[in-house]
Design a protein that fits this description.
Layout (H helix, E strand, L loop, with lengths): L1 H22 L4 E3 L5 E6 L2 H20 L3 H4 L1 H15 L12 H30 L1
Antiparallel strand pairs: 1-2
Length: 129
């Protein structure tokens, strides 16, 4: 029961992080929210995804016995980004059509996939003994 609750909480965190990362992806260094530096596009949420999404997968792997359960935060994160990115509030497309979206997806998915692979490797080694 405790494991299911922990996995559920990690999936909820992945959902919230995906929504926030998507909504703040178009941030610019224009002096409104961030300092003014020549209106440069600054995808700070991609950096957040690079750090937090693999940590969620790693935390889920502590409670998981199967790879699908360990990958659950990553799957929720990807599904949330795709759903809200393509069918956002009011039918708006929230994904910006440039390099920032690619960086967000790659930055969150690739390190998380490595974390899932590490979990699968540990499971395979444990099964050999």
């Amino acid at each position: 029961m405790r494991e299911r609750l922990a996995i559920g909480a990690l999936m909820a965190q992945a959902f919230v992080l995906a929504v926030l990362e998507l909504f703040f992806l178009p941030l610019r260094l224009d002096g409104t929210l961030l300092p003014r530096i020549d209106d440069y596009q600054f995808p700070v949420t991609a950096l957040v995804a690079i750090i937090t999404t693999p940590l969620l997968v790693l935390a889920a792997s502590w409670y998981a016995r199967r790879a699908l359960v360990a990958a659950a935060p990553l799957l929720v994160w990807l599904g949330t980004l795709l759903f809200f990115g393509l069918f956002g509030p009011g039918g708006d497309v929230m994904l910006v059509n440039d390099w920032r979206s690619l960086l967000l997806f790659a930055g969150g998915a690739l390190p998380s996939a490595v974390a899932v692979g590490a979990f699968m490797g540990r499971q395979a080694r444990a099964g050999d003994h």
